[in-house]
Write a structure and sequence with these properties.
Blueprint: H1 8-26, E1 78-82, H2 83-88, H3 94-99, E2 104-108, E3 113-118, E4 121-122, E5 125-128, E6 131-132, E7 140-141, E8 149-156, E9 170-176, E10 184-192, E11 196-206, E12 213-224, E13 232-245, E14 250-264, E15 295-310, E16 316-337, E17 347-373, E18 376-397, E19 423-443, E20 448-465, E21 468-469, E22 472-486, E23 491-502, E24 517-530, E25 535-556, E26 559-581, E27 584-596, E28 610-619, E29 626-635, E30 638-642, E31 645-649, E32 652-662, E33 667-674, E34 697-705
Parallel strand pairs: 5-9
Antiparallel strand pairs: 1-8, 2-3, 3-4, 3-7, 5-6, 8-9, 10-11, 10-34, 11-12, 12-13, 13-14, 14-15, 15-16, 16-17, 17-18, 18-19, 19-20, 20-21, 20-22, 22-23, 23-24, 24-25, 25-26, 26-27, 27-28, 28-29, 29-32, 30-31, 32-33, 33-34
Domain TonB-dependent receptor plug: 71-164
Domain TonB-dependent receptor-like beta-barrel: 269-676
Family: Belongs to the TonB-dependent receptor family.
């Protein structure tokens, strides 16, 4: 039972990078679509907005170092999914967006719970505008909507400067939309397969005549049934943000967003993938183990306040206070066991009710500026942050656990809802973290730049979770160093190394808590920016290692004990995004990895060793109102060994298509077709149980903008 809510590609890319300067000279640049003036805010390190640029890339990002740098100046791989790409391919959920990034694997273990991996390791670092999000178990419960975001950055490898705790996988940074000085508005109505209906609204502009106070309001509402039997999902999104100029140099920003999800008959756990004789099952894609009374409701509320001040041309400071409350309640049916191939029998019930409340408060203070040394100007950022997270949850277990169930082929979800008073268990624990950090970009010469810094972090937790002591405490200094050498004005060589750590509460056979997980990442590569910084490209060779991750090693009596697992990942990643021609936008990513333990054995076999992602849109000549596009995702085969045998998912390819026609300057109509070939595949092998992803589906939308 799951815990309670718990070498040819190289040659080609090098040739493309080296040829790009010539293409840049030959290909005429196009004017970007006009963008309403965006106020420079205390969050300007994440500006400029990608809205209305039409680009599949960004000019600046601070997601890797805290310094506002171009992707070429950043000594780590950074992939970006912009607002334009989200709109073109209707990427309305975080799962959709991360499935379109160059190197992230979306592990959809259930309908309403998802894990993520990159470079073979779990992703546990999620941020909004550079401030951590409260994913208590390193996963996402519910369907996080993307309506409020301008873009999503993925920084690959460890990220010792921005988030000292976590794994050497990736950090995902969601960049919010901000108010515009000029009035702008948009709305959209979408209808799709399985009675999916969605309404979007977005309005922004000045709130007083002087323009010193500006605001933005974003709302979304979606209702949908599913290809899965009995499953349905509704969600509503609200985001409001106001900026006020308190003076010529001081800006106050306050905002609030909330999202409510309601899932009817969701999966808790999934389908058995093997029969008791070791042969693979092969259920219909619509098969679900859920009952008709099951539900899973979540609510996220987050409020933030930012105060920024520009001291002079070189120096600024910003203070951010964030409060997030995450609650969820559910009544669910988990089905366990291994069925017989001849009868389908051998499955049993495990009904449960669950409620959780996670309250997180965060404060961050930072200063950024320039200083002169040895006749050159350099950049510096430093600051400190503090966070506290309190989690309370309770499980009420239902009567009749272990009741035999019919074969899933005959399962209709008709199971009498029991009283949930068989037993009770739960958690109460508190997590605290304090950090101080500094990073500098030193201009050693016109061509050579050094980025170096460190973060000192203390992390501690106390309390219990389902009878297990969650006591842990660890402190560490995580260094960061990167070099960038400009070969030309378009091309740079780079290298970087950084570390990361995570405290652990699990105990070994002697009863002592395991030492923290330690992660390291090393990366070298080649980066380029072309066509007036409208196209970014990179090639990275990387090596990451994770040491001492807790792995179950057995029991002493009824108490589990753990041992530390070491793993090493190495490979290469290719990333390209932006404008290839005045009519063509594209995003391309290819990642190839190997991952082994210290004995040289393959580990984490559910993570694909090769991953290809590509998206492109094209404005049709002669029919200027028409844009067409395609999205392709391919991954190599994956497998998981179990006590009954091996579960294997063969390599597969998914293709999605889009088209949009601009009726006039305000109105447009669009259509999207997903999984064109109707590929049947398992959504994830992260767990022994799994389910099948969505078959071919389509949507159409009517869009308006002002």
């Amino acid at each position: 039972m799951p815990t309670a809510f718990r070498r040819r590609p190289l040659v080609l890319v090098i040739a493309a990078l080296c040829a790009a300067p010539c293409l840049a000279a030959e290909t005429p640049a196009t004017e970007e679509q006009s963008l309403a003036a965006v106020t420079v805010t205390g969050n300007a390190e994440y500006a400029p907005s990608t809205e209305k640029t039409g680009l599949y890339t960004t000019r600046k990002s601070a997601s890797a170092t805290g310094l506002s740098l171009s992707l070429r100046e950043t000594p780590q791989t950074v992939s970006v999914v912009t607002r334009t790409q989200m709109d073109d391919f209707r990427l309305t959920s975080v799962n959709d967006v991360l499935a379109a990034t160059s190197g992230v694997t979306v592990e959809k273990v259930e309908t309403d719970r998802t894990y993520y991996t990159a470079r073979g390791f779990d992703i546990t670092n999620f941020q909004t505008d550079g401030i951590g999000q409260p994913f208590a178990h390193g996963n996402v419960n519910g369907d996080i909507d993307t309506a409020i975001y301008d873009r999503v950055d993925a920084v690959y490898g460890a990220n010792g400067l921005i988030s000292a705790t976590g794994f050497p996988s990736a950090t995902i940074n969601f960049i919010r939309k901000r108010p515009t000085a000029d009035f702008a508005a948009s709305a959209g109505l979408t209808a799709g397969s399985w009675d999916k209906y969605r309404l979007d609204g977005d309005v922004s502009g000045k709130l007083i005549d002087s323009g010193h106070v500006r605001g933005r309001l974003v709302v979304a509402r979606q209702e949908a049934d599913s290809y899965l039997d009995r499953y349905g999902h509704d969600k509503s999104v609200f985001y409001g943000v106001v900026e006020a100029d308190l003076g010529e140099s001081t800006l106050l920003t306050v905002g609030h967003n909330q999202q409510r999800n309601k899932a009817q008959s969701p999966l808790w756990g999934a389908l058995p993938m093997l029969y008791s004789n070791g042969q693979p099952t092969n259920y219909d894609r619509s098969t679900s183990t859920s009952t008709d009374w099951a539900y899973w409701n979540t609510t996220t509320k987050s409020s933030f306040a930012e105060l920024s001040h520009q001291f002079n041309e070189d120096w600024s400071a910003k203070a951010v206070l964030t409060r997030t409350d995450y609650t969820h309640e559910s009544t669910l049916m988990y089905v366990y066991g291994t069925p017989s191939q001849s009868t389908g029998l051998g499955l049993y019930s495990y009904p449960s009710q669950y409620a959780m409340d996670n309250r997180q408060t965060q404060a961050d203070l930072a200063a950024t500026g320039k200083f002169a040394l040895f006749g050159r100007k350099h950049e510096l950022t430093f600051g400190a942050n503090w966070s506290k997270s309190v989690l309370d949850d309770v499980s009420y277990y239902g009567r009749g656990i272990g009741t035999a169930l019919p074969a899933l082929e005959n399962w209709t979800g008709n199971y009498a809802m029991p009283a949930f008073d068989a037993s009770t268990d739960g958690s109460h624990f508190t997590y605290r973290q304090q950090s101080a950090y500094a990073a500098a970009r030193i201009n050693l010469s016109d061509e050579l730049k050094l980025i170096t810094g460190a973060r000192a972090t203390k992390a501690e937790s106390e309390g219990t979770a389902y009878g297990v002591n969650r006591q842990s405490e660890a402190s560490d200094l995580t260094p960061y160093a990167g070099l960038i050498y400009d070969l030309t004005r378009h091309l740079s060589l780079y290298g970087s190394t950084t570390e990361i750590f995570t405290p652990q509460y699990q105990t070994d056979a002697t009863g002592n808590a395991l030492q923290p997980v330690e992660g390291r990442s090393h990366e070298v590569g080649l980066k380029g920016e072309f066509f007036d910084k409208k196209l970014n490209a990179s090639l990275a060779l990387f090596k990451s290692e994770q040491r001492n991750l807790a792995e179950s090693a057995g029991y002493i009596g009824a108490k589990a004990y753990y041992k530390g697992l070491d793993a090493k990942s190495k490979g290469f990643q290719i990333d390209l995004s932006g404008q290839l021609t005045p009519r063509l936008q594209a995003s391309l990513g290819y990642t190839q990895i190997s991952i082994h333990d210290d004995a040289g054995q393959d580990v984490r076999s559910y993570a694909p060793r090769r991953l290809l992602r590509a998206s492109t849109t094209y404005r049709v000549p002669g029919v200027e109102q028409l844009k067409v596009g395609a999205n392709l995702s391919w991954q190599s085969d994956t497998y998981r060994d179990t006590s009954y045998g091996e579960i294997r998912q063969s390599a597969y390819t998914l293709v999605n298509l889009m088209a949009r026609y601009d009726i006039d300057q305000q109105w447009s109509v669009s259509a999207n077709l997903n999984n064109v070939s109707d590929e049947k595949y398992i959504a994830s092998l992260y767990w022994d149980q799994a389910y099948y992803a969505a078959p071919r589906n389509a949507s159409v939308a009517l869009n308006w903008k002002y």
